Every structure is written in structure tokens, then in C-alpha cells.
Amino acid sequence: MRGEKIRLSKSAVSEEEKAAVLSVLDKEFLGMGEEVMFFEDEIKRYLETEFDVVCVNTGTSALHLALEALDIKAGDEVLVPSLTYVATFQAISACGATPVAVEVNPDTLFIDMQDAQKRLSENTRAIMPVHYASSAKGIEEVYAFAQKHSLRVIEDAAQAFGSQRGGKKVGTEGDIICFSFDGIKNITSGEGGAIVSGDKRVIQRVQDGRLLGVEKDTQKRYAGQRSWDFDVTHQGFRYHMSNIMAAIGRAQLKKIDAFKRKRQAIVDRYIEALKDMEEVGILDFDYEDIVPHIFVIKVQQRDALREYLIGNNIECGVHYKPNHLLHKYRTPYSLPVTEKIYEEILTLPCHYDLTEEEQRRVIKSIKDFYSA
């Protein structure tokens, strides 16, 4: 029996999100307005940060605007782990800059700073560590490296909203931190993202940049107005968040603690069931500190196991194909650690609506495969 399909990931929405959207529709002001302002304020309170929060339409937009705010351009280079979704690389190349692919640590899948040192050049302007599977284990080394070499740090924390490091939530300290609120992230606004920073110049640039570069238009939008007599001095984009998206995000934010508990419980059950299997490797994460967006393991015979699970109606994934293997970002050098890991990683179902019965089926299928 194949059973009902077990989804790899999914949104978790209910009547609260639907009511929030209807409330915005009833007001007939759908673009960027006070709902966005409220959402930004609520994120700031949740993070317990003095930093400012700017919401945009996607996590990729957040990364792009952060880079633009630093005037990173053609001829500049940004160090970035190859093992990330292509959006990270696209945000860099959208500025005209070059993403320089770097190895990852084989245990944490976080950017490898020894390899980053090898890739450093006179054109390096920034480093973009990725919170792979919500973890930022190793971030202190990144900031020490950046300080030594006078680099800016843009954290791709797309998967890490609600996670902690050093006893504080991600987004309370650092240089520039970017989150994603797409449909399957730790909270969703349908689509969306946010830039968090204590750098007032960066914040002003991304506020203007999300509204086509129109200077100081943000306050007008919050008040349900728009600027008519304005100036533009930098390239801008139509990256603002709408009131509809913000309304969904506000409803989701109220549930973040419940989402965290459920996701952590799922991971705990996986680890307990799989930790003693020699064919399965558990990543070196501090799982008690993170909200696991995805649960990734390293396995033997990955492709065969994946085919077996799919054949049993269990969705699974591979996060991600390394960017240095893509035509657009292909490198003249190899990254053997990343390439080996790419052949081993497998993502198992992990989402708020995953039932214990479904999870037992996933675990049993993995054990059945290796015992056959």
C-alpha cells in the first residue's frame, strides 16, 4: 500500500489568515500601507531588537536591495556558499557583481571560512553566509573574517526566522539580515521578505529602493498616501510588500511559537529514530535553538532511497544543486566537499501539518529500504 501522499512542505493557514485578507479587501486599499507598517513593528517587537525592519515582496528582493544599498556593483565580488538556492546567487548577479562560490563545512553545511580565505581578492566587497536549514552555526567566524578584511556581511537568513544564536533571536545583532516569508517558510505572508539592520543609511536606501527609489515615500505609504513631488537619486525597484501580504504575515506571526514547537518535535522524532543507523548522518546543528524550515540528512545510496520514498508516495527533496555546477555560475575550480555532499543530502517531510502517523511512515520506509 502506497498510502496517501505525504507532502515535503506546505503552508499552514487557517481562518485567521483568511479573515485578515478579507479585512484588507474590505478596506479597498491593497497596496503598501498601514498593514505593512504594523507588520514591520510587530516583527521588531517579536525579535526584541533595536534594529529597523523593512518588509519587501520576496526574500530575494531583500537580498538584492541589501546589496544595492551597499553600492555593490559590476566588478565587485561577494563570497557565498555554493550550496544554496539559486536566489542567493541571482541577487548578487542582479547588481552586476560576481558571486564567488565557496565550500561548506561538511558537518554543518555552513560556509567554510578556510575556503573563503582562498577565494578572497582585492575585489571582494561582502560575504553572504546562508543559514542552511535554519542554522547559523559558525556565524562568529564569518564576522571575525569580515572585520579582518573590511567586508560587509549580508546574512541570507531566509530559512531562519524565529531561530536563535547565542541566546538571542536571529535579527537582533549583526550587519544586515534578510528573511523570507514565502509560502513554506517558518511564517508566510504568501510571498514576502524583510531586511533587518542597525545601519540607518542602509535602511533608508532599502526603504526608498523598494518603492522605485522614490525618496522618503515610505511614510506617505504608511499613511495611505503617495508622493507627488519627489526626487530619485538611486536605482529602485517595485519590491514593496502589499497590505494583503502583510495581513497574512501578521496572522502568521502570532503562531510562530506553535510552529516552532511542532517543527522541533518533528525533528526530535526523526533524530531519535535515525541516529543509530550507519547509513544515515545527522547534521551538526543546535536543533534546540532553531525553527527547522527543512530537515536534511546525509545518506548512502541517496538517489535510490529518494526513488523508493517517492514510489511510496512520500515526497522528498534535495536542497540544493550547488550553484557552481549551473551554467550561469559555473566556476573554473571544483568544490569537492560541496560536490560530495550534494550526492548525499536528502530532505525529509517537515511542516506544521505533518502528523505523527505520517512521520512514522517516513521513518519505517527509510528503515525498510536499508534492511532490504
N/C terminus separation: 17 Å
| Total number of domains | 2
Within CATH, the superfamily of the largest domain carries the name: Type I PLP-dependent aspartate aminotransferase-like (Major domain)
How many β-strand stretches?
A: 12
CATH architecture of the largest domain: 3-Layer(aba) Sandwich
Please estimate the helix content.
25-40%
Beta-strand level of the residues, as a percent range?
A: 5-15%
List strands and helices in order, with pairings.
Layout: H1 15-27, H2 34-47, E1 52-56, H3 59-69, E2 77-81, H4 86-94, E3 98-102, H5 113-119, E4 124-127, H6 139-149, E5 152-156, E6 164-165, E7 168-169, E8 176-180, E9 193-197, H7 200-209, H8 218-222, H9 243-253, H10 256-274, E10 280-282, E11 295-299, H11 302-311, H12 336-342, E12 345-348, H13 356-371
Parallel strand pairs: 2-3, 2-4, 4-5, 5-8
Antiparallel strand pairs: 1-9, 6-7, 8-9, 10-11, 11-12
Helix pairs in contact: 1-9, 2-9, 3-4, 3-7, 10-13
Structural description of this entry:
This protein is 38% helix and 13% strand. It has 372 residues and is of the alpha/beta class. It has two domains: 15-253, 3-Layer(aba) Sandwich (Aspartate Aminotransferase, domain 2), CATH 3.40.640.10; 256-371, Aspartate Aminotransferase, domain 1 (Alpha-Beta Complex). The strands form three sheets. Strands 1-9-8-5-4-2-3 form a seven-stranded mixed beta sheet, with helices on both faces. A three-stranded antiparallel beta sheet has the order 10-11-12, covered by helices on one side. It has a two-stranded antiparallel sheet with strand order 6-7. Helix 2 (34-47) runs parallel beside helix 9 and helix 3 (59-69) runs parallel beside helix 4. The longest helix is centred in the C-terminal third of the chain and has 19 residues, at 256-274. The protein is globular. It starts with 14 loop residues before the first helix and ends with a helix. The relative contact order is 0.18.
